Amino acid sequence: MIKGKILIVGLGPGPEKWLTPEASAALAIATDVIGYIPYVERLPTREGQTKHATDNRVEIDRARHALNLAQQGHIVAVVSGGDPGVFAMAAAVFEALDAGSEADKATDIEVLPGISAMQAAAARLGAPLGHDFCAISLSDNLKPWDVIIKRLTAAAEGDFVIALYNPASKTRPQPIHDAFALLRTMKKPSTPVAFARAVGRFDERIVLTTLGEADPATADMSTLVLIGSSETRFIERDGQNPWLYTPRHYGVQP
Amino acid sequence: MIKGKILIVGLGPGPEKWLTPEASAALAIATDVIGYIPYVERLPTREGQTKHATDNRVEIDRARHALNLAQQGHIVAVVSGGDPGVFAMAAAVFEALDAGSEADKATDIEVLPGISAMQAAAARLGAPLGHDFCAISLSDNLKPWDVIIKRLTAAAEGDFVIALYNPASKTRPQPIHDAFALLRTMKKPSTPVAFARAVGRFDERIVLTTLGEADPATADMSTLVLIGSSETRFIERDGQNPWLYTPRHYGVQP
Prior knowledge:
Chain A has helices at 21-29, 37-41, 59-71, 89-98, 102-105, 117-125, 145-157, 175-186; strands at residues 5-10, 32-36, 50-54, 75-80, 109-112, 126-127, 133-137, 161-165, 192-197, 205-210, 223-227, 233-235, 243-245. Chain A is of the alpha/beta class. At the A-B interface, α1, α4, β5, α6 and β6 of A face α1, α4, β5, α6 and β6 of B. β7 (133-137) of chain A pairs antiparallel with β7 of chain B, so a sheet runs across the interface.
């Protein structure tokens, strides 16, 4: 029997320029591509390759499907936007594996990293992640909201730069409002904030503001929200958005 | 006068398969490449391109040099391993810009993201960064040690997965020992720990252990240390290292 395999592929934020050669090669050899509809649909159609596009929130079914196909000898690319290891499909595949059979655990699996949304956002803005930072998902689909509160509190107490994933969706508009309300009790109003939407795609939109001035409703499902540490600052420029960066030093100007 | 430019280029963890097409293109058009010796030396020599390899710890001089060359019309690639926005050269360039002249601030600059060490490590290990995480540099060259203590404490209180950059060096062997001593007072001994050294390079070495069992001296300058949250777990496999992952859910098994 042919030995199948699962390749968990990071597509990056969207543009080809950010797709690694490793990910390109995986997409070229896969017999099956599995993923959330918009990611699968934007990939070119290839002869002999079957696309399985599924809706959001069915990650475990998708992972189970990939395991089954791999065990039948298929080369399955499970695709995620960004990095599959960061709030994406890799954890779902390993959850399915963990709950699965010995055959599942023996499946050949490889994770192919990609550029995550916070990196594309940071690159566009300057260097806001230049110092210690946290990445927090505001989705409470799979974790209790009090865990999110605990982590936002810890992130503010630690004075980390904070990258917020999944800040809001149509059915879940509230988290980003609640997160900002909390952070406003803990951090200065002058703290820089960036809403970086769909960076690298045609509908990219950047909003630079401060914690005091920010309208949390600026964030949608495609937005990565960055909130500075006490050291994060803007550099004003003529005729362009200011740069946003976090120095490598802290408190002590070298 | 020809308009110069600075491209702050992420080389990723090492292998070509993780170098983005955007970064490859930048290296091909640059008139000058500036960076830390090992990164610059491993790049191919190109006709008409000048390499400026400098020692570690001179990031600001390097950034200043890049600004000067760009203002003379050069296309300058400032290279970093990993992602230049994550504990690397991007913040140094913006620090130099911030302290610089109006001409500096008008310099055309672009940041090109790359795969960072924690992503390569996570991909190799499974999906340890599958849930909320922090990235902390243990270098106290530019920040007071008490800030590092504050952040490690907050990261443990928030039950984040923790990625430690710069855990140790020959002249600075102590931080990783002190960090583990602190984390051992706050997190369970059974917490999974990974030492992921030089992932993707010929001298890659992975050590999987627990917080209770770990020998902090396993970490060197090329090691990314990952410490799990309370949810991070191993999946045992026959004849291979176990997988390491953090589920997307927290506390509540769906």
